[in-house]
Amino acid sequence: MLRAVFRELVGLFVDDGWLALEIVAVVVFAAITATLIPSVPLVAGAILLLGCVGVLLTNVVRAGRR
Amino acid sequence: MPHSLRDTEHLCASAPICVRVYRVHIERREGVSIDDVLRVLQHHGGKFCSDLDLKRGAVCATLLAEPNALPTFIVIALSAGRELLVPASAGALAACLLVAGVGLFVHRPLARVPENTLKFAVGVMLTAFGIYWTGEGLGVAWPGADLAIVDFAALFLAVGRAAVVLARRPSAEAWSSTCCELCFAN
Question: What is the pTM of this model?
């Protein structure tokens, strides 16, 4: 029962596990870029923005094929 | 000394109408602390008055200039978010209660809105805000500042709609199998 409750709670925040992991990967990559190139933070911003757009597109197309 | 002080006139909601509020952006660099900020403000002429949190966990300080005429407040927002857990949590709790209260009144008309449309709109907004604030946390100075949120929302709205159209298009395999069935049927 605890497992079911935990799954419900997690489900409130994460609907699609792969989507969440992909977004986390984009954020981590953007953070690494921001750390490596602090003089041009817009590069990290572009990676964050375009990465999320890419993740959204691939996720929707993948869901449509299921 | 922090870099690039930009003065922006900004009317603070909690300030009296006769007061002009300046919001001074300090571009975040490593090692910029609130003591640096206060030193800069004192250099510009004034004394430290009180702490105010204006938005999203930012540290704000108001500075009251030595007045002969109207008092001038200078509001500094540092997006550092340090030592702000209690005010940020209080703000989040207040927001929760406010939304719950509003929901009590609007839940009936809201129930008429298609659920997927609602989810889509909320998703677009959350994504736009999330990208903006994540970027802010990473030190990104988004072009257009806060207005970038609107741009992000428009972008994700367009991308989301395009993605739905793409997802609805039948795949090449589906078309070919349909054609084969038709051929055999004939």
Answer: 0.52
